[in-house]
Design goal:
By secondary structure, the protein is an alpha/beta fold. It has one domain: Rossmann fold (3-Layer(aba) Sandwich), CATH 3.40.50.2020. It is built from four helices and nine strands, in the order αβαβαβββαββββ. Helix 4 links the parallel strand 5 and strand 6. Helix 2 packs across helix 3.
Length: about 190
Amino acid sequence: MLSKQNPKLMTPELTEEIVGRSTCLHDEGEVESALDSMAASISAELSSKNPLLICIMHGGLITSGKLATRLDFPLQMDYLHATRYRGGTSGKDLQWKVYPSESLRGRHVLLVDDIMDVGTTLKLIVEYCLQQGCESVYTAVLLNKLHTRKEPDVVADFVGLEVADYYLFGYGMDYKGYLRNAPGIFAIAEQDM
């Protein structure tokens, strides 16, 4: 059921129904453990490089925040907002909403996002960063979705967990703008697609 005042808003009752029909693929403990492992790998690679961590909004918000508190070395943080989904469940052309405010020239950049699905968004953002004169660009994603539709030669440098090819929500990933804050990784039921 959608809200009568605003048809784009889901009601709390509908949100509860969707969560109730979903399947938990990774609980909070498993995700937090994966973030610990990611942070250790990132630290080993970037701790001496004075990196600029760039959160890819909105999906990368939770992963970026949770990783940043685990990275015990000097870094700067920024964000960008480039999207293909615009609140829906399928992608379109990349739309830039906010570019990074820090200069990327000569920097080691760590892009952080929630998921590597097809890889188109991440590929275009990496290309943008390189065009801005970065020394290097690293990518970190909480989840890598396993399927054969990926962009050629697009591989994340740091990955928390690998997941099957489902529509997911939680830890930054949304369902129609909702459920980013779910404490785990959940697959949407077929009837809710």
